[in-house]
Amino acid sequence: MSSASAPLPAHHHAEPGPLARRLGYLGLLPFIAGALFVWLLGTRMDDDPFFFVVRGLTAYAALVVSFLGGLHWGMLMWQSGVGAPESSLHQRALWVGIAYSLAGLVAVVMPPYAGLALIGFVLIACYLIDRKLYPAMGTAGWLTLRFRLTVVASLCCFLAAAQI
Prior knowledge:
By secondary structure, the protein is mostly helical. Helix content is 75%, strand content 0%.
């Protein structure tokens, strides 16, 4: 069993399996559909349905950011030892996980064009932070998938924000 201060071995969750990859890519569908909707149909629709979809895209993006923060907590739960002191890595990961959720909350209450732009930047920031945290937590093999998902999701947020 791993102690609270030592990361898990590099082989632990080294690569996402096929189901994780499929579900990750499937999770991009609301981003892609939302951005396409805003670009293709936004100017042809009444305001109520348009803003319903835009708010939905913003809320979904914020949930994804919050999920990314929850991953930190989940990985740390897996590594935690009973009564073991928390390392500085663990403390940093816990704070970062909360910060992700708070950033998502701020984006949801902002006007959609600003909230979507903020989420786009937050998704990129999450990835850059996780590039340092994931290897220390034994999950570096997930970074390729995370990069691909981050590029598409943040691009969709930026494109939708630009059209609103």
